[in-house]
Amino acid sequence: MHLYRELTSPTVVTHSVTCNLSSEEESLVVVRGNSLLQVYNLKPVEKVGAHGGDNLSELTLETVRIASKLVFVAEFPMDGYVVSLQKFRRSDYPNDLIVVVFKYAKMVVLAWDSKTMAFEPVSMHYYEGDLPKEHFFNPEFQCKLSVDSSYHSMSLLYQHDRLAMLAFPVLSDVDVLEIPFLPSVLLNAVDLDVFCTNIVDMAYRHGYAEPTLSVLFTPKRTWTGTLGLEKDNVTYIVVSVDMQRRRSTLLSKISNLPYDICQIVPLEESIGGTLLLGANSIVLVDSLQKTGVNEYSSFESELSIDLNQAQICQLPNTSHVLIATQAGVLYDLEFSVYGKKKFKITELTDIDKCFQPTTMSCIGSNLFIGCQGSNAKLFSWSYAQINGTSVVVNDPVDEIDEIYHALETNNVKEGKILFCLDDELASTGPMGALTSLGDTLTVATGYGTSGGFTNLFKTVWPIHRDRLSLGRPHNIWGLGSYLLASFATESRLFRGPDFDPVTVGDFDLRNPTLEAQLVKDNRIVHVHTRGIATYDAQFTKLAHIEFDSEAVIAIASSDVIVVQFEGLIRAYNHSLTEVSASQGQDAIGAFGTQMMSSQAGHVMIGSSDYYFGSFARFVSICNEPVLSDEPVTQVVAAKLGDNILANNVLAIIIGDVLSIYQPSGDSFVKVFATTVGGDAVVVPLNISNYQVLFVTGRHPHILMKSTASPIRCHPFGHRRVVSITTLDTDIVYTDSKYRVNVVSLDEALDYTTSEWPHQKFTLGEPISALAFDRNTNLLLAGCNTPVSREALLDNGQPMEGTKPDASFKGNTFQGRLKLVSPDTGYVYTDFEFSDNEAVVSIEVVTLQMGELADLREDFVVVGTALLLNEDEASNGYFHMFAIKEVHSDMKGYRLEKVSEELVRGAVTGICEIEGGGVVAGQGQKIMMRRYRDVYSIEPVAFYDAAIHIEDLKSLRNLIAVGDAIQGVSLLSAGVEPYRMDLLARDHDFDTKVGCLEFISSEDRNDLHIAIVDINGRLRIDQFDPDTPSSMGGSHLVTQSEIFIGRRVNAMTLVYGEGKSLVPIGGSTDGVLVTVEPLNEMDFKALYVVTEQMADKEQSIACLNPRDYRTLGCKPSPQAVIDFRAAQNFLMLTRDRQLHYSRKLGQHGLIQVFDAITRQSFDF
């Protein structure tokens, strides 16, 4: 029984679209990691930047300008793999709708509900039913969606030659049809043209009154090796489709286009026509379906632009088209709109590179670029000013456009475009190699010059400044540079930074303090058990009142002071004049805070009989029907955000669950929920540039949010926090031993991009392998820099048939080994390998210095691959280094090469076994080596795998091997004598292994292997010789299988609960994943509720989470619990939670909460 958990959310932006969801103001809808839908708005802010040159070819940044910041609105995880995202508008909806296309021909139309801040499904269109019956079904084919610019129809291309066209009625047809959409029209490629087959791309043309489709297809397939027989075989056609009659009319056809043309880019009316893109070619087809030679072609051919997988976007109402290549370079295609259309290409050199772009969208005067290899970026663009004005020309109307009534008048701006970086969406992807040291998980991230490594931490570890012994205070408050502490019979005031006890002004310290706070005009409000007093900044008393009876609880906000006595609640303003309040019976624990909004009023709650202000209104409008019957521990109204934007939120603790609500119109929407301990208390704090919520108790947490991120909840330290406050820029808290700790947060960490705080370091090149040296606490990073490949023979002469002066050359990699400080990113030394030698694997191993010696020494073992020509054998090197300390004025380290060995095959995996041996996977062979003498090693045993090895991991003397065809094998290694024997193999594995790792638990005395294949399936195999299906232990028994939908590139072992070892993997889209053992009691509780939720709860896009998690998986004896589905249980209303947990018995709800709490805190 196991639990699959995504420790972090995806950060790589894969799709984006701009649309009007609720008003005329445009929003940005993005998809991260093909599965997380997010909505952003733009907020104008002032930004200071450097001033560029006066030349129009340079980037100009004004000193102070208005920039746009991305403001996070909402996010929705989806149980599907998104392949396309578009917008369109229907006559019966006032705002834009979005259409999301999933893998396997599934399309869902969504509308935004501004009241609930969520998407509602409008229609669902599934075309996947007959796909497996096709003779040549390709399950990995990526569907393509195109939407008509006039929003009359949309077309979905699936399985190469199948088209699904969906038409929407226009305004004049609504009364007649009274249906939201017309029936889908399913067409084959030959229905468009008799020669149409092998469709490459399709898109709707702009400016046509009727749906007009452009199609690229290849009647005869070819590739580079058959160009001598078949080339220039791409055909481009334009057809007009009559949706009602199910007919198409061929308007034009262009044949014999270059074989690498693969993309259609329809241009808006400001330019007109269509761009056809190939690997290194751009073809412009104008509105008259004519092509011609561009007069700038001789100049532009020298650019050698690689357009494979390039992203293209036309700036609205301009004559400029932007191209972002996979290398991160941006180009500007500037069109001339006078007479015959022509364009010239300019490289934008003064703009930040966007490596491996995945999407481009224009939102007003901003350009958004989503990237896989770097952060997603938001630019603002404007025209270069010439004598204070921009150049504006009138675009002549083409004859064909006049016929179709597409254009009447059109003002098109021409001139130089300037770009300024406004904002970024930080990304921790793509994740490559992983390694861990203590509480730090280091992951290789980024691509190109943005490549480097990222240190991730599950827990916020504060920087300790001081620890004080001030007695045993019950609570503490920060008042500027003073610390007020409440004790059993009195209060004490301390002045920082020495924290000496002081008595200042008229401040009354004779009674225990209930509340103290700095409010407006630097006024201090002090509430103690016998009265209330207000003071100025010098602690001079301004006003005070005495209580007739002893107060038990008090809350001070920016406008009101609420005090609870035995059986009575009173409220006062800052002039200490009593205002009306509700009364009731005795309340146990009443908490409240600041004014949330003028509409909501003040909030105070003790039990179901006590409320002050608008809490009763909150109960009725937030859809919590049984909330009043539950023990409400605390209600807090506060702000959560940063110095740019802080949102009003309402935090409620009911039992062990903390829920965060956000006002939306005249109601509240639950936006976050998590489990907390029974002694938890929420305290609003201002820390650095953030307004946060701190949860005290046995499991302290800190809730943070930035302008562009959702709410993040981080564990805080490892000690229980009793009370907490801020003092100047520091955090002061008391622990379980009532010691006062003065700490601060590390401002170098990013707390809001991901669920794990992290710090990113850039090395300027991508990292392929990582390892920690525990003696020096240094990081070994293997980097591979892309370089141009020289096709040379062994004698240095060029290969026959190659062109030494060719513009395009093949790429290869230059390997380097860097010794880096993980705390600062400082590179101590950089070792460069030979030409065409790439680093594949690194491991730090401890070897025994000889068979009779007890001395052991650590070495760095590096496996490389020689990237040679196609017809040459693949070889590699086995390198061994020692880290030596450099004694100089500044402490340093260097790498000393111990030995190297040329081996047959690339060294794809290295691991260490007990007894001082090192095992390497090289090609189709596994070799064990040991230390011999004088810094040299020798092979002592081998195992012939027969298949190319993909991954290699060890646990003590066990070795797990993943290959390209036969799946997974388990070997045992011995040192006396040296040997490797096959124990078991997974005979039912039919897909290439991506990565693997062990799962071990000493308490359960079992051994599992977690395997992730290249198709995103997670498989858990068990080695259990006592099971009959294991055939005496020769077969690995498959226990569970689940589809995770992510490409996991690497895995490493970390310590889980108790003495268990669990794997953590990093995916291409920036997600940390893990799978861990689950006890039977927690498995039963989570399984019962998640299965019911999968059947009865509606997902964001009407997708079935159970079907998604079993996609392509074979039936297995045990299920795997998806922890994200279990966490969704906390977002349900209390009556739904009780309904689903009733099957577990009378205390079923408590069992579910306990299971979620254990899995949240024990990892």
Automatic annotation (TrEMBL):
The RSE1/DDB1/CPSF1 first beta-propeller domain, residue ranges: 12-380
Residue ranges annotated for the RSE1/DDB1/CPSF1 C-terminal domain, each copy included: 815-1130
A single MF term (Gene Ontology): nucleic acid binding
One cellular component (GO) term of this entry: nucleus
Statement: the UniProt record of this protein carries the keyword Nucleus: yes
Transmembrane segments: none
InterPro entries assigned to the protein according to its UniProt record, in alphabetical order: Beta-prop_RSE1/DDB1/CPSF1_1st (IPR018846), Beta-prop_RSE1/DDB1/CPSF1_2nd (IPR058543), RSE1/DDB1/CFT1 (IPR050358), RSE1/DDB1/CPSF1_C (IPR004871), WD40/YVTN_repeat-like_dom_sf (IPR015943)
One Gene Ontology biological process: mRNA processing
Keyword vocabulary terms for this entry: mRNA processing, Nucleus
Keyword Nucleus: yes
Compartments, record wording: Nucleus
Domain RSE1/DDB1/CPSF1 second beta-propeller: 481-737
Gene3D superfamilies per record: YVTN repeat-like/Quinoprotein amine dehydrogenase
Chief location category: nucleus
Superkingdom to which the source organism belongs: Eukaryota
Protein name: Protein CFT1
